[in-house]
């Protein structure tokens, strides 16, 4: 049984009261590790450590911080396979993705963050008159709490911590209790690289350790990637100690296919590149609403069905596996409940719907849900409006551009959208009128570090980048 500890003030420590939580391998349903069940005392210790480390870290020349960030990148590169295997065991995201995509990508991201440290210390100058000038300077907030989800812990950890540290903040990471072993292992490795207190990691339940962190007056910034409900709870909890918030929340992204599109590319774009493979649809930007132009409706349903039939569900540590399990028993129950809701609401099942041992008989204790496609003409159904966060998509036909746009925007979410068309004029119109933070045209789920990633409406606001972790101060100087 692997046992992990928190990282607080440069030391690896258990929860203050010694409590632990079981970490379950979702492919087997078996406990494989234990993590600290931290509480208020651990939250306060982490804040104290981060605040103590802040003056030296923020006062360090920017290029000095860059040196440390490059050393973190070296840790990612040197321990890629170990970290990938831990993450796959912990949350079921297939190894071919964690090892071949996530770890190389995050090594690169830490290098990029190191290259952006100077952006966080640049200011502007305004000449106000012959004897006076105005200037601005950017300063770090102080202690930044980064709350990360269970679907991609290493990636989200990096997207937040790298930029927050580059800007001169000290950081406390609170990973999701369902899957935080990879981040806690990172804490062990980074304790040898970063100055004590600059990075702290505390695991546990949200109400036990997350809530005290968010409410703490010693915390100056909070960044969350998670559910809309969690974002709302954090907003309420932080109201008494006002602090800036960055939220990347849920989504119900439309993936829109027009009859003039490259249908081969579109079929892959709305299935294996979007909502099914890799992480079993447990992706905030999953294109879980597939809008299809009626002239190609039958052809697209056939193409989607054929591609889905080739998806291989098996041990996520097997490099030939193309889709893994649902992360936890609770999430499995949520996803399967929507399959029942779909039937009651009148959505038609095209394929899938199988769950549990009938999906992967060799791993009967795992939380398995087969790739599933539903169809309906009614976008008001719960399966069209609510985030399922599993390998379940709903296909909806449309006749005109205006109808496609209306269906797409008929959602409380606004994280992302996909558009498949050869018509440049149509693409420009949809880029303008889709109510989302990101629009992909003839591709899907491309998120390069050089572009912002965030949503609108119930999908949140702000994004993780160096300047998001700084505030501007103005000065006027008269000679």
UniProtKB/TrEMBL annotation:
Which organism encodes this protein?
A: Planobispora siamensis
Q: Does the keyword Oxidoreductase apply?
A: yes
Q: Where is the Aldehyde dehydrogenase domain?
A: 16-469
Identify a single GO molecular function assigned to this protein.
oxidoreductase activity, acting on the aldehyde or oxo group of donors, NAD or NADP as acceptor
* Protein name as annotated: Aldehyde dehydrogenase
Q: Which family does it belong to?
A: Belongs to the aldehyde dehydrogenase family.
Q: Which Pfam families match?
A: Aldedh
User: What is the annotated signal peptide range for this record?
Assistant: none
Q: Which UniProt keywords apply?
A: Oxidoreductase
InterPro entries with a match to the protein in the record: Ald_DH/histidinol_DH, Ald_DH_C, Ald_DH_CS_GLU, Ald_DH_N, Aldehyde_DH_dom
Which domain of life, per UniProt? Bacteria
Q: Which residues are catalytic?
A: 248
């Amino acid at each position: 049984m692997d046992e992990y500890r928190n990282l607080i003030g440069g030391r690896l420590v258990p929860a203050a009261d010694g409590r632990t939580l079981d970490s379950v391998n979702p492919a087997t349903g078996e406990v494989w590790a234990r993590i600290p069940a931290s509480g208020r005392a651990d939250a306060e210790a982490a804040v104290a450590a981060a605040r103590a480390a802040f003056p030296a870290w923020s006062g360090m020349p920017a290029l000095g911080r860059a040196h440390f960030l490059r050393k973190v990148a070296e840790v990612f590169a040197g321990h890629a396979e170990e970290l990938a295997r831990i993450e796959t065991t912990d949350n079921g995201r297939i190894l071919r993705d964690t090892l071949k995509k996530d770890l190389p990508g995050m090594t690169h991201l830490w290098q990029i963050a190191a290259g952006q440290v100077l952006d966080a210390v640049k200011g502007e100058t305004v000449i106000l008159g012959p004897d006076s000038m105005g200037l601005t300077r950017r300063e770090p907030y102080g202690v930044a709490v980064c709350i990360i989800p269970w679907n991609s812990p290493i990636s989200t950890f990096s997207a937040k911590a790298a930029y927050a540290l580059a800007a001169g903040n000290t950081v406390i990471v609170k990973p999701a209790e369902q899957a935080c072993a990879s981040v806690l292992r990172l804490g062990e490795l980074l304790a040898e690289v970063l100055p004590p207190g600059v990075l702290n990691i505390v695991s546990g339940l949200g109400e036990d350790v997350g809530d005290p962190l968010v409410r703490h007056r010693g915390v100056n910034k909070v960044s969350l990637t998670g559910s809309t409900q969690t974002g709302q709870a954090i907003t309420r909890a932080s109201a008494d100690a006002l602090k800036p918030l960055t939220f990347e929340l849920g989504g119900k992204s439309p993936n829109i296919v027009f009859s003039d599109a490259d249908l081969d590319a579109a079929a892959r774009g709305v299935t294996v590149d979007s909502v099914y493979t890799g992480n079993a649809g447990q992706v905030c930007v999953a294109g879980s609403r597939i809008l299809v132009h009626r002239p190609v409706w039958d052809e697209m349903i056939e193409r989607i069905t054929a591609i889905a039939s080739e998806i291989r569900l098996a041990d996520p540590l097997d490099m030939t596996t193309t889709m893994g399990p649902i992360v936890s028993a609770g999430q499995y129950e949520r996803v399967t409940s929507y399959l029942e809701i779909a039937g009651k609401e009148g959505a038609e099942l095209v394929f899938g719907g199988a769950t549990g041992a009938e999906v992967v008989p060799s791993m009967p204790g795992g939380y398995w849900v087969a790739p599933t496609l539903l169809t309906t003409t009614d976008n008001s159904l719960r399966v069209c409006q609510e985030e399922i966060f599993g390998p379940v998509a709903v296909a909806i036909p449309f006749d005109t551009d205006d109808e496609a746009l209306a269906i797409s925007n008929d959602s409380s979410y606004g994280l992302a959208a996909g558009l498949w068309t050869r018509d440049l004029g149509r693409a420009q119109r949809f880029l303008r009128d889709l109510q989302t933070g990101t629009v992909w045209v003839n591709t899907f789920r491309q998120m390069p570090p050089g572009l912002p990633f965030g949503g609108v409406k119930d999908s949140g606001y702000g994004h993780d980048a160096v300047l998001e972790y700084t505030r501007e101060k103005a000065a006027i100087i008269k000679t």
